[in-house]
Amino acid sequence: MIKVAVSGFKGRMGSEVVRTVLAEKDMELVAVLDHEPTEKNIAELPEFHAENVPVYGDLGQLLSEAHPEAVVDFTTPASAYQNTKKIIEHGARAIVGTTGFTTEQIEELTHLAEAKQTGSLIAPNFAVGAVLMMQFAEKVAAYFPNVEIIELHHDRKLDAPSGTAVKTAEMISKTREKIKQGHPDEKETLPGARGADYEGMRIHSVRLPGLIAHQEVVFGAAGQGLTIRHDSYDRVSFMSGVTLAIRKTAELKTLIYGLENIL
């Protein structure tokens, strides 16, 4: 049995991870973390009244007492880096869906994971369909260098653009000709109207209630266009990627950025 802990278990993603881990036959939920817990065990919550899993308010204490092999973190960009660092330092595997990491932070965490010989994964998106969308976009960009990314999320999301959109742009840039898109004399009559600029391509962020996670990668060329779109209608769409990461990181000795690298 793989001993798993969930950080941010009361969040929308965290609670889905808890339900998923409890249902997996080869996993055992040994602890959960909340920044200000009002209960000591998840059995105090109606949904989990039949379970016996301790609730912690301190990650260090959780790691020292519950001894998880893997910790799934869906918290906030402000705490994700320190959480991930602490998890790896304790020799546990970090499976992180929180976005907002800088390149320098990912590099530092990778070096730490290698020093600890501990497999971990940071993924902007755990939906397998979204990962395939990014891979398809990378391939298309070699032939269609004019591209714009439109990402749409719920209005409670804290970062913009999304980690998925940034990761998509990074992957596209590997095969895309470096060009500046649009008219050279283009002017924004309202600042920000053309979206964020990533190496000449544009990223647009939409935040509306009712949405979950959606993205379009729109390519244009002379006389034709190609759109690749992925939609997550329910947070359960991310769970197959989470369980895959929990299992696959046991085979790694370093930190991997992007679910596509373990598919």
Overall number of strands: 12
Approximately what portion of the residues adopt beta-strand conformation? 15-25%
How many structural domains can be distinguished in the coordinates?
Answer: 2
The overall pLDDT, averaged over residues, is 95
Helix content: 25-40%
Major sheet summary line: 7 strands, parallel
Q: Give the ordered list of helices and strands.
A: EHEEHEHEHEHEHEEEEHE
Give the strand order, joined by hyphens, for the main sheet. Answer: 3-2-1-4-5-6-12
Please state the structural category: alpha/beta
**Global shape:** elongated
Regarding CATH, which class of the largest domain? Alpha Beta
Rg, please?
20 Å
Which residues form runs of ≥5 with pLDDT under 50? none
Q: Determine the N-to-C terminus distance.
A: 22 Å
Number of helices: 7
The CATH superfamily of the largest domain is identified as: NAD(P)-binding Rossmann-like Domain
CATH architecture of the largest domain: 3-Layer(aba) Sandwich
* CATH topology tier name of the largest domain: Rossmann fold
Organism: Listeria aquatica FSL S10-1188
Keywords: Amino-acid biosynthesis, Cytoplasm, Diaminopimelate biosynthesis, Lysine biosynthesis, NAD, NADP, Oxidoreductase
Domain Dihydrodipicolinate reductase N-terminal: 2-126
Active site: 153 (proton donor/acceptor), 157 (proton donor)
